[in-house]
TrEMBL record:
Pfam families reported for this sequence: NMT (PF01233), NMT_C (PF02799)
PANTHER family for this protein: GLYCYLPEPTIDE N-TETRADECANOYLTRANSFERASE (PTHR11377:SF5), N-MYRISTOYL TRANSFERASE (PTHR11377)
An example Gene Ontology molecular-function term: glycylpeptide N-tetradecanoyltransferase activity
Record protein name field: Glycylpeptide N-tetradecanoyltransferase
Length: 466
């Protein structure tokens, strides 16, 4: 059991056995309630038996799958919503608070959202790091093609006017197997620390749902580190050190038993220059080629966005004349003879505040979309693996040059083919994918039943959430 728990540090910590000591009665009792599979997939979490629907007072009322429905099902919506019956006004809030629609084109209002997230957004289990999404990032994430002001929902304290909670959505055309859903992508749910555990989250979720329904959007995709009923897929975080010393200083990367700092630094050393011929930053003239390549590549996955040209421009192309700082970096490979675009990859930046350390923040690159023509032609797994490894190695070199400290990736898309070879280490975090008002059969998340990267199965997830 100790060995198994060492493969799932997040769960070990929740059970209070982070040091491998299984002697406490509380820990053994909690463990007895879990199946082996639950332990390994992280489905057991939160201190409550995560598979017990009765403990999800809110989610059990929602059009989402119950736990344990294993049989193959016909995919489709849980319910057809009658627009006439959708309330025209928001539900009531507790006294002293009121709904606001945020205007994120206004610098002051987007700064308010930034401040709320800066102080209160997602932290790791030990409260050592907190995501610090920049204002530029929020503009990129929340003002994407088709965005609607109505979907940037805030709660203010009536007296002080302070923003104390937020939830948002942007539109997405999402293919789930062979059906394309016009859905919303819900993100940035955040409640001020002083207002936690007061059942405000369900109120926010109901409000964003109402506002999506009013625009005839009946489905949503969202992700969370916590287990809710019921993930359509579970992926795992992997981290690749770029500046091991700094990551060690801030407590992110412990020194492995029996190693020395200089060995670790050597282990993660990268060449100074990229190796792929024809690799260069993506430009405006590449948009159509990238769109075509990406659309075809994403066909490989069970669930993926259906990108438009406008979206490729928005999500992948850095506009040099933009007053915003750059948040996403995209590169293409241009064949020197044919001049065609054969591959592309991208990553984006999220800093994390380090709570209590001499360094104030960690700069993390997150692997975003990528594609290669190797996958579109007849190929062996070994050929695809080789190509992806060289592309991702170049991505690491570029990210290092851009002063990132760590490169993060999930076990989605074809990532299982390069994570270990590129020296990514398994993280203790998981990212669960959820669909609202849509029944879908499970999608592989790129980890096996032991929560290890699954090179054979890979993942059916082709959607990267910010
Ligand atoms: C996530 C957060 C908004 C939840 O608020 P809270 O005050 O802890 O919880 P509340 O009392 O308001 O609501 C609890 C309900 O929300 C659900 N919930 C908690 N986190 C959730 C999440 N990330 N997504 C959806 N539902 C969530 C709970 O399961 C519970 O419902 P249940 O009774 O059906 O189980 C708050 O903890 C927060 O702002 N955390 C930091 C930011 C964050 O983690 N955001 C989510 C990113 S995915």
């Amino acid at each position: 059991m100790s060995d198994l728990l060492s493969l799932n540090p997040a769960l070990a910590q929740q059970l209070g056995v982070a040091d491998g000591d299984l002697s406490s009665k509380q820990a053994t009792d909690a463990l007895k309630k879990l199946s082996l599979e639950d332990i390994m997939t992280g489905l057991a979490a939160n201190g409550k038996n995560a598979k017990d629907m009765a403990s999800y007072k809110f989610w059990q009322t929602q059009p989402v799958p119950k736990f344990g429905e294993k049989a193959e099902i016909e995919e489709g919506p849980f319910k057809i919503v009658d627009l006439e019956k959708v309330p025209k006004e928001p539900g009531p809030l507790v006294d002293g608070f009121e709904w606001v629609t945020m205007d994120l084109t206004n610098d002051e209002e987007i700064k308010e959202v930034f401040d709320l997230l800066y102080g209160h957004y997602v932290e790791d289990n030990e409260a050592m790091f907190r995501f610090n999404y920049s204002v530029s990032f929020l503009r990129w994430a929340l003002l994407s093609p088709g965005w609607s002001k109505e979907w940037h929902v805030g709660v203010r304290a009536s007296a002080s006017r302070k923003l104390v909670a937020f939830i948002s959505a942007v539109p997405i055309a999402l293919r789930v197997r062979n059906k394309v859903l016009h859905a919303s992508e819900v993100n940035f749910l955040c409640i001020h620390k002083k207002l936690r555990s007061k059942r405000l989250a369900p109120v926010l979720i109901k409000e964003i749902t109402r506002r999506c329904y009013l625009q005839k959007i009946w489905q949503a995709i969202y992700t969370a580190g916590v287990v809710l009923p019921t993930p359509v897929s579970t992926t795992r975080y992997y981290h690749r050190s770029l500046d091991w010393q700094k990551l060690n200083d801030v407590g992110f990367s412990p020194l492995p038993h029996g190693s020395k700092p200089q060995y670790q630094i050597l282990k993660y050393k990268l060449p100074n220059n990229t190796a792929t011929k024809g690799l260069r930053p993506m430009e405006e003239k590449d948009v159509d080629a990238v769109l075509d390549l990406l659309q075809k590549y994403l066909q490989r996955f069970d669930m993926a966005p259906v990108f438009t040209r406008e979206e490729v421009v928005h999500w992948l192309l850095y506009k040099k004349d933009s007053p915003d700082e750059q948040v996403a970096w995209s590169y293409v490979v241009e064949d020197p003879t044919t001049k065609t675009i054969t591959d592309f990859f991208s990553f984006y930046c999220i800093e994390s505040s380090v709570i209590n350390s001499k360094h104030t923040s960690i700069r993390a690159a997150y692997l975003y979309y990528y594609a290669t023509t190797v996958a579109l032609q007849p190929h062996t797994q070994a050929q695809l693996k080789e190509r992806l490894n060289s592309l991702v190695n170049d991505a690491l070199i570029l990210a290092k040059k851009l002063k990132f400290d760590v490169f993060n990736a999930l076990t989605l898309m074809d990532n299982a083919l390069f994570l270990e070879q590129q020296k990514f280490g398994a993280g203790d975090g998981q990212l669960h994918y959820y669909l609202y008002n849509y029944k879908a059969n499970p999608i592989a998340g790129g980890v096996d039943h032991m929560n290890r990267v699954d090179e054979k199965g890979c993942s059916g997830i082709g959607v990267v959430m910010l």
